[in-house]
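S2.1 Query sequence (RNA polymerase-associated protein CTR9)
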Amino acid sequence: MTDARAFYVKDSNNTFVLPTSIDIPILSEPGQVVSVDITNDLPEGSDIVNLLQNEQAPQQYWLNFAQAFVTKTQYNDAEEVLTNAVASPQFALADAALAFHVFLAWLYLRQSEAGGPGSTALLRSATAELQQHASLPLFVLTQAIVLLTTAHYDQALDLFAQVLVLQPSNTVALTGRAHILLHRQQYGAALKLYQQVLILNPLLTPDSRIGIGLCFWFLGDTQMAQRAWERSLAVAPSAEARLLLTLAQFDALFTRSLSDAEFVTSYRTALTAVKDQQALDPENATVRLMLAAHHYARGEHEETARLAGAVIQQLATAAPPGSREQAHAKSHLAVAHFLTARVSFAQQDYTLAQKHFHDSIRLNDQLASSKLGLAQAQLARGSPDEAVMTLESALKGAAPGRERAETVELIYALGVLYAAKALADARAVEPRIKAIAHLEKYVRAAGKEPVILNVYLLLSQLHEQTDVTKASAYLQKAVVMLKKQKREIPLSMMNNCGVFEFGKGNFQNAKQFFELAKQQNDGDATAITLDYNYARVSEDRALYDDILVRCPSYTDAKLRVLFLSTIEASGDTDKLHLLHAELKSLVDENPDSTALRSMYGWFLHNHAKALQLAPELESSHHKLTVTNVDSHDTYALMCLANLYYTIAKDIRSSAKKDVEKKNQYFVRAAQLFQKVIKVDKLNVFAAQGIAILLIDFQHSAMGLEIFRKVRDSLNDLSIFVNMGHTYLQLHQFAKAIECYELGLARFTTGDDARILSFLGKAWLLRGLAEKSLSCLSESVKYAEKAYQLNDLPALKFNIAYVQFQIAGFVLKMTTHQRTLKDLEDAAVGLEDAIQSMAALAKGTHPPYPADDLQARANMGENTTRKQLADAIQEQQAFVSSAEQKLAEALKQKETEQAKLQKERDEQLARETKAQEQMAAERAKLQEQASEWVNEMASYVDGNVSDDDNKDFEAEPKKKKGGKRKKKFINDSDNEEESDDGAKKPRKRKESALKPDSKKRKVISNDLIEDSDEELEGEGYAEEEAGSDENLF
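Output structure tokens follow.
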């Protein structure tokens, strides 16, 4: 097939372009041509067809004229040229018509992109052209493009893969695959393909840099995306690159502006770019929508509605169904309906706004802003439940991954709706939980962005009834935010901060907040409340009196005054009678006030016995509260439950009737505790009551688990005391002691006699269980501390009881386990115990029957005292015997050590003497060896002449005399070989040390090597199979 580029020319960018004119050879006049100006005077398609047919022009002329018509957007003329070429007998062969079919398919695709009613028919025509040569790679590629255009992505992907198998570097197929992967949100894979296309063909149209920028954009790297589009605009200017850069400018100014001035400047620049785009392409839907959003922000609703309506009218039927263009049109239409809905909402036409929001969601289900707007419209129409359902479905359908700005707004809106439900109904648990979950999720999702102030305030309100610490923390965050923004903190927030600090026990901080609130206050309506809160922190009687002067009916202030008066009048029955009468009068005047009734019940519980009031008065009072005032009053229910439990514990008889009655009271107490928990699921006091009942019925593990959970919520001494009691019952004495000590250290100053007595009991039980005298001694110490703080007879009995236990414990110990001091201390303690028991027996209020106390004292005096005296004598004898044995053992040890030391000294002296002898002998041998070396050197120098050396060199060496073994002297012991070859040590002979001996002397290696020949001439025999090594 002829290369159509042969008739093209290259421009300054080295790109093939059509020439300004085409010269057609005349068939009847060889060498002559007909020149057609295709730039300024291009004839109609029919005239060109007649000319080409008459002159039987080659294929490339038909293609060039078709391209010229396409360049001038004369698609009908181009189609006429191509269809006549296909029908011409000149191109009857399939290969000849191939290029025309491809061109026609491309032309139909090009026309379908413009949209309109005939787009579907054009796509069918393109498909028909491709099917005639479906097996050829070029047609496969073109068919894939058609499928891509009609949004049949799976089939298109398969065809692109077929082309790439045959042509791995086909940039069109690679670009098609990249488009599909980009559509499927596989941005990483699409980016690699676009980059591969850019390497293979940097000048390919459409520019792959646009796709690269889109991939970077969706991957979150907006700066790289902007750089890719800028490069595309520089290399191959296009409206797409320019528009994408404008969108990137808007994104940058909304997300990366560091100041208001920078934002304004950037916004003006971006808006200018949009207007420039509008001037170049007034019908561009994207530009229209951007300008519509701008006008909406300026409050120009009519212009917004006009632009959005123009987009809706333009795109309603522009794209063929099922095509990519239709998907893009839907996206633009969704935004246009969204803007129209916002205009309607601003004009308070909520019904029309809801309709447009629905249309927007129908066109683009992922547009979270439309769902949020729909929820707002539903809420404005009075349908909060529908708004909640809309937001929940929007969150479920949100795209996975990192939180987008729209999703964060959905979370916030849903949290606010749930919070409104929860605050409207204090007993609504589920809305409260959901509101807290969504608002806290919003705070986490906001990240570095500033959190809406209302979120912290709502979270603080939602946590007020359940977690004061969290409520205070969120309110403090709101205060910090206002301080950073240099805004005035409202009086109500300062007051609430003080209330929360008071609830946490931080009274000084609460006082400071209340003082700040009072300084900001300028109205009488809130002055009374602020003064009461301040008085509540300081508990100043004068402040309460001042409040009652200004507002005599302030019941809370009256209650605080009565409470303080009751504390002051403790032990004064006359004052208590007056206070009782005043309280009774207040309750009669305000029978429905649960606060007053609770105060009166507390007074009866603590002072009814001292005032000799009827024992059943307290229970009847609480029963009236539950039956006549409020059946869900938790204080009255708790008091009745505690009362029934106490009655049950006081029944100690084992008779069947009494046991049944006891169990009935236990059941009543359990039922009341359970009712309290139903009313208030976070009531830790009721939970403790149930735990105590479980422990009483031998379910200690379950009760202990409840105590552990309560400990995390309740900052009170009772939980540590109850846990200590439970651990005692479980015989985990170390943990019980730990709980008591934690409670003593955290909630008292170490002077609580009750807790100290509990510690004494725990140490006693631990000592008896572990058979530890030190633990029993600790028990005595704690019992004595408790008695010093409160001289109750029962506490004095505790000391004596433990002292008796110590005496008995020490007597049971063996003489090896105890010491004389232990016995003496036990004897002293026993004397104190005997006196204490006798005194308690004679007292007016003995803790136990006097006879039992006296009997124990007599037993200690008559029996235990004598046993301790005998034990002391026995221990003294044992100690004396042990000391004598120890002294003898020490003396024997010293004698043995002295003997061993003497032997070591003698051995050391012998070794030192032997070493000195060996050193002297070695020095003497070295001196003799030195003399022999000198003598041998002088002998060799005086008896060997030059003539002898010459004769020795001329004649062969002869051995004289028989062989004899060379003898030598060294510093080591001599050895000789036995018959079996083993060497045996032998003593050095004295004759070997004489100067006239015939044995060789020890000389240096150098001397031997230089004088072997002379020695042989003098009659020295060589050693058999010897070498120089034998000399050393």
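The first strand starts at residue 9 and ends at 10. DSSP finds 44 helices and six strands in the chain.
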